């Protein structure tokens, strides 16, 4: 397939010449010689190992925590609880004014998901830390839990997260993110057919080969160096600074080498507590998730539910689309309010539909907090939308690719969230796809263009 | 806890260490001796990132006790390049885009090396079988399989 530079000729003035040319990755020589330094390859004398005591319950009140036996365990240097964390309640996106702070570094009075961090144990060896963690006694009063989004939104459902006050994220637009464009009911009224379907997905774990973690060393001048595999260096630096109530100038983050992330390493979870541990003990500290923690504790992609109602004409035009999307944030926000919001803008898909109504909810349940993963907020939506498109095409007896040509957005079209389409090239992509897949479409579609002169 | 002496050759040089009884070879290599090329992806024998060669056999160093390796000849990816010159296997991984984050790569290369040492002209099925204990979450397996087959061809050309 040749590179068609004419598609974006007025967008990219530079001479593109890299596509189709092999270029060596800069980091490959390190990888094939075993020399690339991942965070866990840093080893410091006297390094302590951190193990978390985690909640065995999905939802419970903590009546008391007894760390006395753990503290006596040979090799244990320090045991930390919520009281030791300077600013224990935080939320990652506070940096871009997405509040409220809703998550604890170490649980304080309550746990909201099974696996939540409650007590941190620091010991000379991993084994001693593990054994001592098993000796921490936490007295729980188990509370009713809710695991599905519809259940969580029902009146009388157990309240998952008091910092929100209800089981959904409150946007400035209300209980959900809303997009209103045209008159969706009028669109349905004149449609030849209506199709309403719902689509659902489960949480997905990224399962990177390298587990989440960091190694922190005190530099002796009240500064700390944190070697980490975070995918979000500056989010981590700034959130650590807030949680530790420590100026950013005291924190030196070293990273960028990540043994697989896929979005699963953008939360700020291990670094603040490891830096605090290094500060309180004056020793280097390593906090590395076990494989089990990586699979069970690290944020997965959110479970989603998408209900799509479309009004379609016999000639193939979609005239109205109503979407209600639900994103299961689990017990805490992390990146999910943003994911649900992205979905709201995205749900019309790459199609121009004159009447659109979208509501997307970010819902709290007693499940593992979900967060970013490869196109979160959009990927599951695309699965739902494209399956819906195939069903609509079948409903009106039209070729599914031709059906997409009819509805494809083109330059100059107004999208439902009031962004004008630019540089779409969707028509041209589909023309190429039609040729490459040997899936012919009528000549009039092959003659179409994304460009509209004067748009 | 009682310490036990272990002594072995690592990539041709003599190493001696005292380790706690029960220490894994992975831990001994990485944290005592300082060869961090074997990676710990699971510490339970499921990912293959910790693969090393012990007396010519592919071994998961996270499931191998250091104390069972006395007098052994241990090889890791860190010792592969001679005088800074990449081996065909390493070259092939680099050229074929068979490494992305790189975390699985040292283990993959060890598994591939054991295969090529024994079966210089492997079939595609041989390669798939040899790598079946190693997980990669990034590149997809196809470039890795191609890299091993390319390295096998390069080896036999060099030998000819
Ligand atoms: S670390 Fe040894 S198999 Fe995963
Ligand atoms: S390259 Fe990342 S796991 Fe294989």
Bound ligand species: FE2/S2 (inorganic) cluster
CATH architecture term of the largest domain in chain B: Roll
Write down the overall mean pLDDT of chain B.
Answer: 96
Main CATH class of the largest domain in chain A: Alpha Beta
- CATH topology call of the largest domain in chain B: Ubiquitin-like (UB roll)
Q: What overall geometry of chain A do the principal axes of the alpha carbons give?
A: globular
Strands, helices and their partners?
The complex is a heterodimer of chains A (455) and B (160).
Chain A: H1 28-33, E1 48-54, E2 60-66, H2 68-72, E3 76-80, E4 89-90, E5 103-104, E6 110-111, E7 117-123, H3 126-133, E8 137-142, H4 149-153, E9 177-181, H5 184-190, E10 193-201, E11 213-218, E12 224-228, H6 233-244, E13 251-254, H7 270-281, E14 285-288, H8 291-296, E15 304-312, E16 318-330, H9 336-346, E17 356-364, H10 379-395, H11 400-407, H12 426-436, H13 443-446
Parallel strand pairs in A: 1-14, 12-13, 16-17
Antiparallel strand pairs in A: 1-7, 2-6, 2-8, 3-7, 4-5, 9-17, 10-15, 11-12, 11-14, 15-16
Helix pairs in contact in A: 6-7
Chain B: E1 3-10, E2 13-20, H1 25-33, E3 51-54, E4 57-60, E5 73-75, H2 88-95, H3 105-118, H4 124-130, H5 141-159
Parallel strand pairs in B: 1-5
Antiparallel strand pairs in B: 1-2, 3-4, 3-5
Helix pairs in contact in B: 2-5
One FE2/S2 (inorganic) cluster (FES) binds at residues 99-104, 136-139 of chain B.
Brief overview, please?
Chain A is an alpha+beta fold. In chain A, 25% of the residues lie in helices and 22% in strands. Chain B folds into two domains: 3-79, Ubiquitin-like (UB roll) (Roll), CATH 3.10.20; 88-159, [2Fe-2S]-binding domain (DNA polymerase, domain 1).
């Amino acid at each position: 397939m040749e590179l068609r530079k004419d598609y974006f000729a007025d967008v990219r003035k530079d001479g593109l010449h890299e596509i189709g040319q092999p270029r060596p990755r800069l980091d490959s020589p390190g990888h094939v010689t075993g020399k690339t330094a991942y965070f866990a390859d840093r080893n410091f004398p006297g390094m302590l190992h951190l193990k978390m005591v985690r909640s065995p319950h999905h939802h419970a009140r903590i009546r008391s925590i007894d760390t006395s036996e753990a503290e006596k365990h040979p090799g244990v240097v320090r045991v930390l609880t919520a009281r030791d964390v300077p600013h224990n309640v935080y939320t990652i996106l506070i940096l871009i004014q997405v509040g409220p702070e809703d998550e604890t570094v170490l649980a304080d009075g309550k746990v909201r998901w099974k696996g939540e961090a409650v007590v941190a144990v620091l010991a000379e060896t991993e084994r001693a830390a593990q054994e001592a963690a098993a000796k921490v006694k936490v007295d729980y009063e188990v509370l009713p839990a809710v695991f599905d989004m519809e259940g969580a939104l029902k009146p009388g459902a157990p309240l998952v997260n008091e910092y929100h006050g209800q089981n959904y994220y409150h946007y400035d637009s209300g209980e959900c993110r809303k997009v209103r464009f045209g008159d969706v009911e009028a669109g349905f009224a004149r449609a030849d057919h209506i199709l309403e379907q719902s689509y659902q997905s489960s949480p997905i774990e990224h399962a990177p080969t390298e587990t989440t973690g960091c190694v922190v060393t005190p530099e002796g001048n009240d500064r700390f160096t944190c070697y980490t595999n975070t995918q979000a260096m500056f989010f981590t630096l700034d959130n650590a600074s807030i949680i530790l109530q420590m100026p950013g100038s005291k924190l030196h983050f070293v990273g960028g080498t990540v043994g697989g992330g896929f979005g699963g390493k953008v939360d700020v979870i291990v670094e603040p507590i490891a830096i605090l541990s290094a500060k309180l003990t004056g020793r280097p500290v390593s906090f590395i998730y076990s494989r089990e923690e990586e699979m069970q504790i690290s944020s997965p992609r959110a479970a989603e539910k998408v209900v799509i109602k479309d009004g379609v004409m016999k000639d193939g035009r979609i005239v109205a689309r109503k979407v209600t999307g639900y994103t299961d944030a689990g017990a805490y926000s992390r990146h999910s309010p943003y994911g649900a919001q992205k979905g709201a803008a995205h749900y019309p898909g790459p199609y121009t539909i004159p009447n659109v109504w979208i509501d997307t909810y970010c819902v709290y349940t007693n499940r593992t907090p979900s967060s970013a993963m490869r196109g979160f907020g959009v990927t599951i939506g695309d699965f739902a939308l494209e399956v819906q498109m195939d069903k609509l095409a079948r409903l009106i007896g039209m070729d599914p690719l031709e059906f997409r040509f009819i509805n494809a957005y083109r330059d100059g079209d107004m999208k439902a969230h009031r962004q004008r389409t630019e540089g779409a090239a969707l028509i041209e992509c589909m023309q190429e796809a039609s040729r490459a897949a040997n899936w012919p479409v009528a000549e009039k579609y092959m003659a179409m263009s994304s460009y509209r002169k004067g748009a | 806890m009682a310490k036990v002496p272990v002594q072995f050759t690592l990539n041709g040089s003599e190493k001696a260490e005292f380790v706690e009884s029960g220490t894994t070879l992975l831990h001994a290599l990485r944290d005592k001796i300082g060869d961090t090329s074997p990676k710990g992806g699971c510490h339970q024998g499921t990912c293959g990132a910790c693969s090393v060669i012990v007396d010519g056999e592919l071994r998961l160093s996270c499931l191998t006790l250091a104390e069972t390796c006395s007098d052994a000849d241990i090889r890791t990816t860190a010792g592969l390049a001679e005088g800074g010159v990449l081996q065909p296997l390493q070259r092939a991984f680099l050229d074929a885009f068979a490494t992305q984050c790189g975390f699985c790569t040292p283990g993959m290369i060890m598994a591939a090396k054991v295969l090529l040492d024994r079966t210089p002209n492997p079939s595609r099925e041989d390669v798939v079988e040899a790598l079946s204990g190693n997980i990669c979450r990034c590149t997809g397996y196809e470039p890795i399989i191609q890299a091993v087959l390319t390295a096998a061809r390069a080896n036999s050309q060099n030998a000819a």
